[in-house]
Amino acid sequence: MSAVILGWSDLGALFAHFLLLSLLAIGGAIATAPDMHRYLVVEQKWLSDTQFSSSVALAQAAPGPNLLFVAVLGWNLAGALGVLVSMLGILIPSTTLALGASRWARERRTTRGVRAFVAGMAPLTLGLLVATGWLLAEPFVGDGQQRLGALALIAMTLFVMLKTKRSPLWLIGLGALAGALSV
Amino acid sequence: MPHESASRAPRSLAELFFVFNRLALQGFGGVLPIAQRELVERERWLTNSEFVELLSAGQVLPGPNVVNLSLMFGDRHFGWRGAFAAMAGMLLAPLAIVIALAALYAQLAELPRVAGAMRGMGAVAAGLVLASAAKLLPTLRAHPLGPGAAASIALAAFVAVAVLRVPLVWMIAVLGGLSMALVWWRLARKQGAE
User: Fold this and answer.
1) What does the DSSP assignment read for B44-110?
2) What is the distance in angstroms between the Cα of B118 and the nearest Cα belonging to chain A?
3) CB within 8 Å: B133 and A133
């Protein structure tokens, strides 16, 4: 399952880190992907670059909210227990806050404070989205043997998504086919 | 803001669960467009403007937008039990599917063709995220700070996270705080001028 065996203290640290990330996930769970990469791959070395990227790809290929890449990361870290720890960590703070604050924010959506918060966060959300795409592409584009194929797939994806109405499912399938045939 | 309200409402917790389950299972590469179609056009539980309002509130708050949306919608109709039913509908079945795929993948990962397929999917996944960023970046044109300043902040966020690998919490505290303060000040000046 996983090359690294996480102990209870590791699981505790993972849980605490995801609790914190949950509250920082403004603009969606995918915005926390760069920091999860930094924590899990660079700092703790629990997952490899490829494991991280393929976890995200797997969640993108499956139906459901993108948030589920967190469950796949948890699975690759520590099986079913990892899924439980990572999903509870990423969901408990944000859902509690969403329930408590939604009425409050709805009533005050025209006030300057709420507008400053929303508009102030917007550029960061977009910068983070680009950073996420960048970090996901890096292991493929950074590898000399895969560079051309990866760049071609990314360019094709951008073209199809921006210029046509085709479902991303076709692209995921095409990427899988191209990758399988390239071996 | 007066607007016409939705013509229908969920009748039970079970109906809430199954509608959110149905829309989540259709959501390959993003649930949001499906949510609009199912909740507004098919079920008529929300008008378009109500959907936008709910989504805006969901975006102000941390957490996945569509999960926040399901929570707030369920809460509005059946309190915390509704919130839980809608969120469970959104997450449970897709969670089981994605874990089954991950378990299968762990056993197949040794096969070079499977590993190759996952690399190809990984490159496409990177492209999908970049494509949604490309679609959303033009919204900065209408930003209260002006397009130039807003794009500079977005660029700074990108460099901090992708190049300098600054922890997210510091980036949001420093750059986010600065950005919000600038917007606050700009809105205050605008209100003063009017």
Assistant:
1) -SS-HHHHHHHHHHHHHSBS-HHHHHHHHHHHHHHHHHHHHHHHHHHHHHHHHHHHHHHHHHHHHTT
2) 6
3) yes
The DSSP result for A133-175, as a single string, is HHHHHHHHHTSTTTHHHHHHHHHHHHHHHHH----HHHHHHHH
Please give the ipTM for the structure prediction: 0.74
B101 CB-near residues (< 8 Å, 6+ apart) = A58, A61, A62
Closest CB to A99 among B83, B145, B151: B83
Q: How does DSSP classify residue B194?
A: -
What tokens does B154 get? 């977005």
* CA triple B132-B180-B33, angle to 5 deg: 25
Which among B83, B127, B136 has the least Cβ separation from residue A154?
B127
Chain A's closest residue to B175, CA to CA, is A124
Angle (CA) B175-B177-B183 rounded to 5° is: 100
> Tokens 């993972």, residue?
A14
Instruction: For A144, list phi and psi in degrees, rounded to 5.
Output: -50, -40
Per-residue pLDDT of chain B (194 residues; tens, 9 = 90+): 334 567 789 999 999 999 999 988 877 656 766 677 788 878 999 887 677 667 666 666 777 778 988 999 999 899 889 999 999 999 999 999 999 988 887 777 778 888 888 788 888 888 887 887 887 788 788 888 999 999 999 999 999 989 998 888 888 889 999 999 999 999 999 888 76
Residues A77-125 have pLDDT tens digits of 999 999 999 999 999 999 998 888 776 766 776 788 878 887 888 788 7
Is B63 in contact with A29 (Cβ distance < 8 A)?
yes
A3 touches chain B (CB under 8 A): no
Q: Look up the pTM and report it.
A: 0.73
Q: Which residues partner with B62 through β-bridges?
A: A26
Residues facing residue A26 across a β-bridge = B62
- C-alpha B189/C-alpha B194 separation (Å) is 9
